Amino acid sequence: MSGSALRGQVAIVGAADTDVGVLPGRTPMELCVEAALAAIADAGLDKSDVDGLITCNAMAQPMLYHAEAAAEYMQIFPRYCFAAGAGGGTTFSVIHHAMSAIATGMADVIVVSMADAMRSGLTREQAMLVQASTGHPEFEQPYGVTVPAYYALIAQAHMAEFGTTEAQFAGIAVACREHASRNPTAQMRDPITVADVLESRLIADPLHLLDCSLVSDGGSAVVLMSAERAADTAHAPVYILGAGEGHSHEHISAARSLTTSAAKEAGERAFAMAGLGPAEMDFAQLYDCFTPTVMVELEDLGFCAKGEGGAFVDSGALLPGGALPVNTHGGLLSHCHPGNPGSMFALTESVWQLRGSCGERQVAGATNALVHAQGGIMSSHAALVLGKEVG
Amino acid sequence: MNAEIPSRVQPTPNAVSAPYWEACARGELSLQHCNGCQQFQFYPRTICSHCGGTDLAWQVVSGSGRVKSFTVVRRGISKAYAAPYVVALIELKEGPSMMSTIVGSEPEVVAIGASVQVGFEAWSEDIQMPVFSLT
């Protein structure tokens, strides 16, 4: 079975973000609930309409039964309820699951809400746990590998194999910032240049500080229901035309390849379900915890040939008004990155872009989009194709 | 947290990995070799990740390989690691890849494809850690 029966069966009918950035004193649960209730209101629904809830755990407030605690806080009583964990890839993996749950009748109205307070809410012990949660405890961590260092291994391999330059990685950070400068909610809005990125201090060669994403607080939520039921909701529905995943490893030292990721399978599966291809996407939101991930994803998702990501960035395609605007909200690099919930903001942004409500940063005539997220060190990939019409 | 000088992250050997660390303590790099499909694997497992077989034997290997990728960590993970230091993925001659570090050279001379040879560095009284030098 290809899973193609899910094509266009489910729609996103509500979307909301909390404030993002530095939010001292706000707990992840408060942000999670605020986002969920705002998304329900955006959909023109009441919390009593919700019978499915998916959350992810919060580093700054870990709970054994996170989704149940969120349901209790809001006093909703779902028949489908779980908290998921696949790192940054969680967001679109759970959307894939939620589509299946709606199609099979496990739930009718599912809220996906995620929040964390990585910037203001971590105790020193929790911050150390975050650092220690990455890498193999016996065969990687002893060498003092930082999170940027794992991704730097990918960047170096791409440079050696394809001649990609530091300036080309920097171009990705510049493009995200250009988008963020048009988004009043973004954490970092002052435009930057390639020289600014290259002159920012080295963190792990070749990655400079401005090649690395932000550390933020914030929450974000969407509401999903069947496309049939979505016909009479408050806003024009955004249909999920395709979904696909690929999972290739957990530890980068055990990866099949450093320069080709399972984003390839995730994208191929999502496009196959949608019956659309990369050339038909009006914008893309690509997981950008560090600039080299976007380089690899552009290639693996088929927006350019393998090894040509650098030239694609140089063409200006990723910029506002470019051939493929990427991370139109500013991405993890410039909008916000509160940890595992990070890609939720790429999803809500995509909903608003496809509704046509993005004001200054609106992608003209946006009809279809690809959103992608990954977790681990390019380990766990999920991609969605979204559209204004089922077609 | 107390104010003691931090120590580097220490591996905790288990029943499966103990022979690896015991070999390191003798100054040897040893990998699991599958008697079924004749392939090496790393890290140690209860099964062969290639063929699923369980007839695995430890074999001392050459310790030579090449740099598959590397980075120079400029901001260390803790005070126990004096930056700058190299983190490198090493592709061993026998096939498997492993995370390690390059010692004995300035970070600036490390390059992808460079030939390396294993050595060992004391991480604690009990643990000798495999590290690599350019050859």
Automatic annotation (TrEMBL), chain A:
Q: Which residues form the Thiolase C-terminal domain?
A: 244-388
**Entry-linked CDD domains:** SCP-x_thiolase
Per UniProt, what is one Pfam family of this protein? Thiolase_C_1
Domain Thiolase N-terminal: residue ranges: 10-227
Protein name as catalogued: Thiolase family protein
* Gene source species: Candidatus Litorirhabdus singularis
